[in-house]
Amino acid sequence: MLLSLLLLIPFLGALALILWPGSPSSARLRDVSIVLLVIQCLASFALLLPFDAADAGLQLVEQARWRGRSLGRQAAVATSVIGIVAIIVIAAVLQFLVLIVPVQSMAL
After folding, report:
1. Taking a C-beta distance cutoff of 8 angstroms, is the pair 29, 67 a contact?
2. Phi, psi dihedral angles at 56 (to 5 degrees)
3. How far is CA 49 from CA 31, 35, 56, in A?
4. Where are the domains of the chain?
5. How far is CA 41 from CA 4, 33, 38, 57, 100, in A?
C-alpha cells in the first residue's frame, strides 16, 4: 500500500494544480510542491517501519490483478534494501531543493 501511495502522490498533486480554480502563480506552485514533498518524505520514511533490513530479497510486495479483457494479467510493485535507500534519499533531496529555490525563479 505504501509503495502505491508513493507512486500516486505526484499524480494527485498535479491533478490538484490543474483543477485548482484561478490563475496559476509561482507562489501557489511552490506551496503545493512543499506540501506534496513533505507528504512524500513522510510516506518514504514510513516504508522503514515494516521493512526488514536483514532480508536481502524483495519486500513490501504489492500485487494487483487486471480485470477486463486482459484477464489473468497482474501488476506488481516491490522494493529491496537499495530501493528503500534510494527512495528516502531522493525524497529528502527534492524537499531540500524546493525549499532553497527562491519563488522568483519558479515563474511560470
Report:
1. no
2. -85, -10
3. 28, 22, 16
4. 2-53+84-106
5. 14, 12, 5, 24, 16
- Burial, 80: exposed, middle or buried (Cβ in 10 Å; 0-12, 13-18, 19+)? middle
| Cell representation of residue 45 | 520514511
pTM of the shown model: 0.74
pLDDT of 107 > 70? The answer is no
**Which stretch of DSSP H or E encloses residue 4?**
helix 2-19
DSSP codes joined into one string, 33-93: HHHHHHHHHHHHHHTTTT--TT--S-EEEEEEE--SSSTT-EEEEEE-HHHHHHHHHHHHH
pLDDT in tens, 76-101: 888 888 888 888 898 888 888 888 87
Cα 70 to the center of its chain, rounded Å: 28
